[in-house]
Amino acid sequence: MSQFLQALPQQVTVFEVGPRDGLQNEAALIPSTAKIAFVNELADAGLKWIEATSFVHPKAVPQLADAGDVMAGIDRRPGVRYPVLVPNERGMERALETGVDAVCVFTAASEEFSQANVRATIDETFERFAPVVALAHAHDIWVRGYVSMAFHCPYEGRIAPEKAVEVSARLLDLGVNEVAISDTVGLATPLDMDAVLALAADQLPVEKLALHLHDTFDLALPNVMLGLEAGITVFDGAAGGLGGCPFAPGAPGNLATEKLVRLLDGLGIETGIDGDKVAAAAERIRAAMQ
Amino acid sequence: MSQFLQALPQQVTVFEVGPRDGLQNEAALIPSTAKIAFVNELADAGLKWIEATSFVHPKAVPQLADAGDVMAGIDRRPGVRYPVLVPNERGMERALETGVDAVCVFTAASEEFSQANVRATIDETFERFAPVVALAHAHDIWVRGYVSMAFHCPYEGRIAPEKAVEVSARLLDLGVNEVAISDTVGLATPLDMDAVLALAADQLPVEKLALHLHDTFDLALPNVMLGLEAGITVFDGAAGGLGGCPFAPGAPGNLATEKLVRLLDGLGIETGIDGDKVAAAAERIRAAMQ
After folding, report:
1. What is the ipTM of this complex?
2. What's A167's domain CATH number?
3. How far away is chain B from the Cα of A188, in angstroms, using its nearest Cα?
């Protein structure tokens, strides 16, 4: 048997980001009821981690301005976690009102992207979410930190692996439970992936790392394979590959959850997820966008 | 660095099957001049092995009835080989008239598929192409043998790895230079791939093996990675993923050459191929199908 296959984990966690990362850039306004049904159908499909919405300012992401309604409307299944994105203390207060049990904060490994995306330096993003993490700890809430543009950036080009690992370490020092190292634009090659993973293996606890991959150039699955080899057991997916550019229908955005599940199934790794049901849920939410 | 990456070959050969496997099922009749330009553009893109056409009976594959014209029309670049598919002695005689320097014969690991596809048992396919291989040897012509449905078959279901390896061994015994183990329907999972590769490593010379993969369920690249790990250095691709079902535009058929090249580039493996030029050539031949 292949050396690679022999070293694989038996189980992997798929972290679904479709309802948040998948929908946030959609131009068509989607009814809250459709979003609620989407989240519930993803739980039906066997997903145990579903990033349900975002408490960023409604003006920044109008599509997710109904975050409170969505959180109030979804079923809270036993054994399923529904993390939400939270940008700052104000967002955290709104999220707390809905009884969240997991939150996600975000920063980047690229200064220029951080400033373009949230008009804040990387240092300033830490200042913004330090109180979020403190509140989370006070309420016994699980926290994930995203490191966007951990490999390449549209502004800065290739990101030094040292920078990606440094920002990840800083998040862990702050007390987040998990860091999602993110190839936000899908430009990471397997060699880029390896450079970050090799450094991460030296300096970070691999059991606290997740990979968030986009599939722009079809290299997400090969990169998942390198992640698995490096001992990572949490991978993000968005049902139907939602999150592509709204002006290029069918263009790959996030790694599609059902595609990720097909790979993991094909490697003999348990996920507990029915990929066909995930794909069907994505088709229904797409229909609700018309 | 990843154990997987450390064991990779420095160079890989990409065997282009677009002009033959990619076009043979296209309903729209494509002018010979467009096919000739396609082959020449693929050579411009750096491909060194281009399966240019097929000398099957014109009634069986009307699309490639102009095989003689195509072979007469293409440039024969130094260092580039232009293998053609040949089903039997009569086809070989036609091919020889055009001055071919490489031919491909085909059989299957599935009895039912063989009978449905060419109305012959596997044994009978060997009887048909034994004289082809003899003629090839007499003319110092390189020979590849395809083993279709080496993993799964639409009729028989999963194929025993022993059967795929047995048919491959039989081709090598007959004196073919290379065996292309083929996932003709794109149903092979990485575990299926591993089962065949592990047995092949025991019983066959890996340097004479190629993998011919379809990308129906997005697992072609993961399977290429397992092939690389097993020591295989020849992989097939079809420019633009040509060869999908003609009634499902955009449905994946053959593994797209440019996608394969992106993976190999991303792994730091030399191919000498410009994937963008391959994709552009595919776009032009697609336009000629309208």
Report:
1. 0.94
2. 3.20.20.70
3. 8
